[in-house]
């Protein structure tokens, strides 16, 4: 197994005096691994992401990424959320280019290498099926298309760590499954490390190598489950028995969390 | 909803104006109101023609002083709004002060301005400025201060500095608020100029109305009123068009 890329050592975080939001987290994620976090609402999944990307410092314990303790925002990460959050005054293409205007070293090369960057963005948009929509404004796109663009924006600076916080939560079932496949293909091709927060167990089981189940607040990891399904996975497998059994087992474990 | 004929919709404001003039004329005639109390529409029109020269001169004075005051208001409003909106601390610290300042009737400043700068254009410009910068500050600051935390996370993780977030997201986002406030500010600026002219100037529409009033020439007073509101309406419309041009994205698709 590859060396750990992300490690959490006894990490706890209390936002305020109301107690820990997240508690005693110990885990390690290796480079290129696809992990999913599931757990009840308010258990600290988004908090986990903030710790992982250095947007928030832990109260106790240490977060290490790529061998170094995380001390501030980690620019090797890209983020996307349930709300696509595209800027309405920018075209889809310009929205995707936004990170390159900000992150070093690209921000200083932006003017000079603009042509090249536009090429990256177009290529990325094409792989998610948005070819021909580059010059449309976000409000001219459907919700699913906006979410695709949002994922492109998270990936444009070629991050090694992709953080997705319920990215498909607001989409209808068909669009969601389409986007699972888009994400799967992007990941198969580039093998960045993914942390996916989701409420959908099928989504977690279909996409992830490892699923972590968290308890209610204060959030702890109460179960780590490796998904042994072979790759690449086809969407059809999600309708077959082994997969359904797996999801059922995960479901039972979540049920135990809720009842305690 | 019934669908209105677009032509009628376009003409509606003009129809309203014509209707108002007719009601005005008829009311004055029916009740036989003396013209030194309330002149009829016809009389006002006559004054407008008779005194076209002086009215034009005084209007021009009012117009440019208003524009300078407004220009100052925009510049100061933008800068102050940007500063206050870019920091939660300053926002909380300065907001009550601004509200308190705004509650002072600006006419109260005129005597002070006269002591400092004498009678003339300067008090008019400054009164226009004082009255019109507030909505600009508030709108720019509010636009900047309301940022989605998730958008901020997306940028902050990339190492964005506060200034990056403000320039890339905050400022463009506050532009619709800014342009909306310009419409309000320009009409307020006219109020400021005219108020100052009525007490502290010997030029401008405000002065003209004041002196005409003291001579009981009510036709001329009303002509002055008409000219002010016409100028304010034209400028309002101008900025409304500008707003539409500049911030079309804010008014089209509302599905976020
Ligand atoms: N900035 C903050 N200040 C104070 N408390 C916070 C803050 N952010 C989150 N919390 C608290 O920390 C806990 C975990 O929040 P978090 O957003 O991580 O939950 P979550 O698992 O992402 O929930 P959901 O599934 O609803 O998104 C919650 O109880 C929340 O109230
Ligand atoms: Mg969350």
UniProtKB/TrEMBL annotation, chain A:
Coiled-coil ranges (or none): none
CDD domains for the chain: ABC_NrtD_SsuB_transporters
Domain of life: Bacteria
GO molecular function: ATP binding; ATP hydrolysis activity
Alphabetic keyword roster: ATP-binding, Nucleotide-binding, Transport
InterPro entries attached to this UniProt entry: AAA+_ATPase (IPR003593), ABC_transporter-like_ATP-bd (IPR003439), ABC_transporter-like_CS (IPR017871), ABC_transporter_ATP-bind (IPR050166), P-loop_NTPase (IPR027417)
Occurrences of domain ABC transporter (ranges): 6-241
Pfam name, any one: ABC_tran
Family, as annotated: Belongs to the ABC transporter superfamily.
Protein's UniProt name: ABC transporter ATP-binding protein
Originating organism: Vreelandella glaciei
Lineage per the UniProt record: Bacteria, Pseudomonadati, Pseudomonadota, Gammaproteobacteria, Oceanospirillales
TrEMBL record, chain B:
Biological processes per GO annotation: transmembrane transport
Membrane topology: Multi-pass membrane protein
Pfam families in the record: BPD_transp_1
TM ranges: 12-31, 63-85, 97-119, 125-147, 177-196, 216-236
UniProt cross-references to InterPro entries, sorted A to Z: MetI-like, MetI-like_sf
Protein's cellular compartments: Cell membrane
Gene3D superfamilies: MetI-like
Keywords: Cell membrane, Membrane, Transmembrane, Transmembrane helix, Transport
Domain ABC transmembrane type-1: 59-239
Assigned GO CC terms: plasma membrane
Nucleotide-binding is among the record's keywords: no
Location, primary (coarse class): membrane
Family of the protein in this entry: Belongs to the binding-protein-dependent transport system permease family.
Identification of the protein by name: ABC transporter permease
Protein's organism: Vreelandella glaciei
